[in-house]
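Quick start: what a row looks like.
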Amino acid sequence: MAVDPTCVHCNEADETCSHLFFNCNYSKQIWQALVGGILKGAFTTDWNDIVTMVSSDRLPSTKQFLLQYTFQATVHAVWRERNGRRHGEQAKSASLLAKLVDKTIRLKLLMVDVDWPMNYMNQRFFHPDFLPHQLAP
């Protein structure tokens, strides 16, 4: 049985790692919603640039942790959504998947034992007023 190499999210390009996770319009919307506020002018959807950023220690430690965990959670969610679609599950919109990933990240932050102030999640890039309207609670 031949597997269709076309991306199940957009049906416009072949499914490569770069396309599936960050260049596909669907994934790009999710990534932008989740890290646009953290990366600001450094925001990118280029796979190599993202891997370099996630692997480096150029950002302050708190932002680096958030970027790394958001990367992991986003890749996992997009992959699960891709598999669900391939196996006949109903598609989730990019905004819904971004909300689900955002919730996963927030729950993880509540469990992390850190030296940061407990009000960290209220800082600007996670504050509801700063999030795009589709992610605000």
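That is the whole record. Residues 61-86 form the longest helix (26 residues). The chain has one domain: 17-126.
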